[in-house]
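Check out a protein:
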Amino acid sequence: MPVHIGDKAPNLIVSEWVQEPTNIDRETGNVVLVEVFQVNCPGCFIHGIPQVVEMHSESYQHGVRVLGIATALLRNNLLLLLASGEVVGETRKVLGQYGYLEAGIKLRYKIPFQDGLMRESPLTDAKLMEFIEANLTDFRSYNETEKKSIFEQAKQYLESEQFSAKTFEEYSLLNKAVAE
């Protein structure tokens, strides 16, 4: 059942809390900001995440809690990010071009707030091609037989990694995102 303004906020439905387990019901009395981002989204790391990191730093002592929800096709990319600050794929490429990385691979800031993982669904051919081209930059130079084989291998791999967008459905965020 969708949530409406004025309703008590239900818990976020995440596949796992990558850091310390928490949720909306554990933050009673605090203001909770939920930052949803994609691990392979350069804009998230240039704009959104730095803003909530600053908000977390300035407002934590005043009862503002930030919960990060990463939509990720690949769990390992999120774990790498949280453990070492290293980014991959298109995020690394774009942030590197703009000089936002240390040693060419790591964020200049740490993500200090709790982070949960929400896998996306469904897997589309466009998402699959985005994944392949982000991880195999010379994909288009392969012959058609090799491309088909790579496509099928990537599809099998990503299908085994898929999650659903339960929190988006609960908070009626899917329709709003499509409309905007």
Summary: The chain has seven helices and six strands. The CA atoms of residues 124 and 155 lie 9 Å apart. Confidence is low (pLDDT under 50) at residues 174-180. The longest helix spans residues 42-59.
